[in-house]
């Protein structure tokens, strides 16, 4: 009986062993103890995210020991916000990849070495470094399936060769200097300089890897960027025209005190109006940039570029076709309002309060009318501010700084009038050159917003 029981037990154990051996491993295998969790945050509207997805999907499908958590930031907003809070992240840009303790921001196929971003607290992402970080966590090579690493490109020319065109063009001035003084040839040469500069810079950017561009942008101080773009925005023919009309009329009052009071009132009101206008733009933009970042950036880039082209058109064909400047009729209207202010002053000091009130009204009216002339560079500033900060205090602080820098050219004009106490006008040629400078600036940043938005991630 014992022998029979032992035989039955042996047969049962043998049968169980054979059954376990015959079962396919995937049906009874447990999740590897060395599984690596990877968090990949992306956006449906982000082209770099779609590019990185071509790497992340094969990694997920061909490496069962990898647990890649795919989170679309608009659909999984709560998870994204919690992740940002847990990792003390302020700039919520995507794609963002977290591999163990290593984080990557953005994605470029240039295969550059690791470059760290203090702003994003992450390395700039590229397939080579992302794969290396995963393999380091796993302790062995990964299977890439159909994914093919981009091959390195051997450059025949150095990346800075496009600047040669710009240097040659600038050098031509010394050869053509005498001829440029005839028949408005200087205007044509300056237009060619603006075109050569824009083309050369973008050929240069096309030769430099994304990660290097982003690293350079982060090293460029953000206060200097805001100062530069606000000062360029301040050289605004619209505001110049009205202020100069007003101050020119005030010279007939023979009172520097009145000129200073009226001029400072006009400039202060302009600064406040500009601050409020940009703050509205920033607050509205902050609601849409995180969700529709790429689409909004491209749309604004197209609008800014078109505005730049219109201003450049005015340099060559002033008063022809559509323009972003003040029309002759609007200038005449503002001239009448300025004359009324001067008449109030001439009637006695008791009318000063009335003149100041009229000046505030004029400045408000001028700033509302000229929004189409001035809204483009603030749009560039807005996109950088919202990408860099997420709190209202920072929005207000930086926009206040922008508004103060914006009125520096107006303060210089006022100081010049008070010092010289003479009536001057902006010549047509000066107006054209201001249009060319503003248009080139707008077109430059518009194209950057469309094709190289990473360059706007200033440190």
Automatic annotation (TrEMBL):
For this UniProt entry, which segments traverse the membrane?
159-176, 188-208, 220-249, 261-289, 295-312, 352-381, 401-422, 434-451
Q: Which UniProt keywords apply?
A: Membrane, Transmembrane, Transmembrane helix
**Source organism superkingdom:** Bacteria
Q: What is this protein called?
A: Uncharacterized protein
**Which organism does this record belong to?**
Desulfopila aestuarii DSM 18488
């Amino acid at each position: 009986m014992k022998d029979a029981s032992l035989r039955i037990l042996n047969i049962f154990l043998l049968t169980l062993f054979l059954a376990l051996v015959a079962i396919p491993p995937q049906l009874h295998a447990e999740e590897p103890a060395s599984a690596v969790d990877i968090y990949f945050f992306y956006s449906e509207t982000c082209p770099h995210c779609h590019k990185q997805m071509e790497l992340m999907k094969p990694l997920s499908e061909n490496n069962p020991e990898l647990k890649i958590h795919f989170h679309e930031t608009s659909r999984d907003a709560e998870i994204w916000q919690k992740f940002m809070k847990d990792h003390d992240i302020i700039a919520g840009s995507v794609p963002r990849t977290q591999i163990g303790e290593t984080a990557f921001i953005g994605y470029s196929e240039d295969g550059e070495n690791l470059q760290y971003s203090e702003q994003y607290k992450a390395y700039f992402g590229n397939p080579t470094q992302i794969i290396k970080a995963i393999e380091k966590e796993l302790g062995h090579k990964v299977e890439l399936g159909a994914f093919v690493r981009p091959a390195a490109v051997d450059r025949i020319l150095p990346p800075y060769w496009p600047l040669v065109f710009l240097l040659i063009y600038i050098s031509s001035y010394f050869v053509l200097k005498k001829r440029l003084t005839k028949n408005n040839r200087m205007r044509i040469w300056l237009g060619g300089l603006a075109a050569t500069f824009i083309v050369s810079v973008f050929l240069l950017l096309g030769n430099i890897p994304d990660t290097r561009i982003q690293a350079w942008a982060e090293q460029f101080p953000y206060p200097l960027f805001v100062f530069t773009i606000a000062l360029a925005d301040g050289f605004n023919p619209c505001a110049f025209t009205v202020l100069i009309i007003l101050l020119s009329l005030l010279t007939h009052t023979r009172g520097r005190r009145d000129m200073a009071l009226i001029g400072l009132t006009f400039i202060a009101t302009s600064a406040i109006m500009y601050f409020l206008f940009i703050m509205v733009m920033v607050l509205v933009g902050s609601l849409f940039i995180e969700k529709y970042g790429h689409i909004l950036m491209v749309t604004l880039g197209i609008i800014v570029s078109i505005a730049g082209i219109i201003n450049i058109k005015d340099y060559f064909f002033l008063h022809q076709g559509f323009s972003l400047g003040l029309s002759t009729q609007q200038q005449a209207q503002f001239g009448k309002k300025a004359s009324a202010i001067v008449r109030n002053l001439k009637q006695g000091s008791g009318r000063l309060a009335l003149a100041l009130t009229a000046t505030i009204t004029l400045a408000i009216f001028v700033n509302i009318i000229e929004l189409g002339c001035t809204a483009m560079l603030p749009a560039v500033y807005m996109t950088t501010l919202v990408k860099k900060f997420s709190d209202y205090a920072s929005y207000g602080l930086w926009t206040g700084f922008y508004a103060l820098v914006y009125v520096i050219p107006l303060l210089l004009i006022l100081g010049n009038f008070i010092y010289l106490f003479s009536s001057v006008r902006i010549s047509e040629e000066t107006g054209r050159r201001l249009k060319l400078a503003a248009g080139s600036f707008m077109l430059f940043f518009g194209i950057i917003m469309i094709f190289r938005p990473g360059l706007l991630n200033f440190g």
